[in-house]
Amino acid sequence: MAEDHGRKWDRCLADTAVKTVTGLGVGIVFSVLFFKRRTWPVSFGSGLGLGMGYTNCQHDFRSPYLIHGRMVKDEKLL
């Protein structure tokens, strides 16, 4: 149980970090190219990434019985 909990935390932190840095990068690009170097696209992009990561973590911790990457079918006995 503790190992599974640790795996979920690792996945959440990695996912949140990737989404936040990607949002930050997209915000910087949009700030430089389209918005005359204003700061709001950078903060908006990083906040959007942080929010998506947080939402994924909430979903991951609230669904403890979800099996990732497998499809489980009910088999009826004849």
From TrEMBL:
Keywords: Membrane, Mitochondrion, Mitochondrion inner membrane, Transmembrane, Transmembrane helix. It is a single-pass membrane protein. It comes from the Eukaryota. The keyword Lipid metabolism does not apply. The chain crosses the membrane at residues 16-35. It is found in: Mitochondrion inner membrane. The keyword Metal-binding does not apply. GO terms for cellular component: MICOS complex. Coiled coil: none annotated. Its main location: mitochondrion. Pfam families: DUF543. Component of the mitochondrial contact site and cristae organizing system (MICOS) complex. Belongs to the MICOS complex subunit Mic10 family. Component of the MICOS complex, a large protein complex of the mitochondrial inner membrane that plays crucial roles in the maintenance of crista junctions, inner membrane architecture, and formation of contact sites to the outer membrane. This is MICOS complex subunit MIC10. It comes from Salarias fasciatus.
